[in-house]
Structures are given as C-alpha cells and as structure tokens.
Amino acid sequence: MSELLSTFGINWKLLLAQMFNFSVLLLALWWFLYRPVLDMVAKRQSVIEKGVADAKDAEKKLQNAETEATKLVSGASGEAQEVLANARARADEKSSEMIGSAREQADRIVKEAQMHADEAKKQAIKDSEKEIAKAAVLAAEKILREGK
C-alpha cells in the first residue's frame, strides 16, 4: 500500500497529519462557530414565534376593544347630543352677557375719553388765554416804552 501511495506521490505521514489538522479545524469550527449560530437561530426563531403569538393576541384584543368602543359610542351619542345642546345654550347666554358687558365698558371708556378730551380742551383754552394775555401785556408794555 505504501508503494501505491508513493507511486501517486502521496506521503502518508503528511496525509495523516493533514487529516488530523482537518479534524481539529472541523471540531474547532463546529464548537466555536456552528453551535453558537444554531443557538442564535433557535433564539431568534423563538422570539419570532413569540412575536407572532403576541400579534395574534393583540389583534384579538383590538377587535374586542373596537366592539366595546362601538357599543360605548352608540350609547354615548345621545348623551353627547344633550350635553352639546346644553353647552351651546350656556355659551349663547355667556356670549350675550359678555357682549352686553363689553358694550357697557366701551360706552364708559368713550364717555371717560370724551370727558378727558373736554378737560384737555378747556385746559388748552385757559393756557392759550393766559399766553395771549401775557403777550398782550408784553406788547402793551413795549408800546408804552417806545412811546415814552
């Protein structure tokens, strides 16, 4: 057998060493790479299965919630209409009160502004009369001084 291997140019010692090295490499790859990848795939698969189950549960809960919401909405629509009508009536009443109050306040402000304007006008007239009187006195004094 050794002659047959040497005829083909195969060194049996080297072949045996390469087979041993390949076995060690295969064992190391299986131990450090293949097993962790399989574990990771199994974990990922369980996460996906849990996600699918959770999604189904959520869909059922959503359907139940939609049914319950429909019941509540249909029951509450009449009550909502009544509350809305009451709110509109109160809003109209409050609006009328506020408009009346605003008109009264506006009238009061206009009257006060008119009074202040009248007072300012009277004061301006008094001030101008005083100025005119002073100017007249000064003019008279000047005329009298020039006349002497």
Automatic annotation (TrEMBL):
Membrane topology according to the record: Single-pass membrane protein
UniProt superkingdom: Bacteria
Keywords: ATP synthesis, Cell membrane, CF(0), Coiled coil, Hydrogen ion transport, Ion transport, Membrane, Transmembrane, Transmembrane helix, Transport
UniProt key word Transmembrane helix: yes
GO cellular component, one term: endomembrane system
Subcellular location: Cell membrane; Endomembrane system
Gene3D superfamilies recorded: 6.10.250.1580
Molecular function GO labels: proton-transporting ATP synthase activity, rotational mechanism; proton-transporting ATPase activity, rotational mechanism
TM regions (residue ranges): 12-34
Residue runs in coiled coils: 48-75
InterPro entries per record: ATP_synth_b/b'su_bac/chlpt, ATP_synth_F0_bsu_bac, ATP_synthase_B_chain
Subunit structure comment from the entry: F-type ATPases have 2 components, F(1) - the catalytic core - and F(0) - the membrane proton channel. F(1) has five subunits: alpha(3), beta(3), gamma(1), delta(1), epsilon(1). F(0) has three main subunits: a(1), b(2) and c(10-14). The alpha and beta chains form an alternating ring which encloses part of the gamma chain. F(1) is attached to F(0) by a central stalk formed by the gamma and epsilon chains, while a peripheral stalk is formed by the delta and b chains.
Chain's role: Component of the F(0) channel, it forms part of the peripheral stalk, linking F(1) to F(0). F(1)F(0) ATP synthase produces ATP from ADP in the presence of a proton or sodium gradient. F-type ATPases consist of two structural domains, F(1) containing the extramembraneous catalytic core and F(0) containing the membrane proton channel, linked together by a central stalk and a peripheral stalk. During catalysis, ATP synthesis in the catalytic domain of F(1) is coupled via a rotary mechanism of the central stalk subunits to proton translocation.
HAMAP family assigned to the protein according to its UniProt record, in alphabetical order: ATP_synth_b_bprime
Protein family (similarity comment): Belongs to the ATPase B chain family.
Record-given protein name: ATP synthase subunit b
Organism from which the protein derives: Candidatus Harrisonbacteria bacterium CG10_big_fil_rev_8_21_14_0_10_42_17
